[in-house]
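QA checklist item 7 of 12: single-chain prediction sanity check.
[x] sequence parsed
[x] length recorded as 145
[x] structure emitted
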Amino acid sequence: MRESVQAEVMMSFLVSEELSFRIPVELRYETRDPYAVRLTFHLPGDAPVTWAFGRELLIDGVGRPCGEGDVRIAPADTEVLGEVLIRLQVGCDQALFRSSTPPLVAFLDRTDKLVPLGQEGALADFDAHLDEALDHILAEEQSAG
């Protein structure tokens, strides 16, 4: 069973306080990896960039600041839950995106209908997923060296 939920959301890429531009972001959730969501950012002039992180982090981040390290999600205004900020960081480089909350909530609602929160373990075949990931890593190492 390889079912998925997809959506495209327009987000603002906040380059600085004075400069931002809107970009399409593909949201994807797959039953083969039931704990994660994937966001693919389509930046002008660059190849698409995909980030994967916990679905629960996105759910929690819609209503309150959460996340540590590379991914942090929080409402833009804690008084009004109309927009969400998503901060992605690699080393000292970071990118900040702002999204309207309703399309994220609609996407998350569809993921919950596919796999209810807390029921992910019934789908997760960790041994097969681990074997697949290790095979992928070994293949990359062999082709690089």
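[x] summary fact logged: Residues 22 and 43 are 9 Å apart (CA to CA).
[ ] second reviewer sign-off
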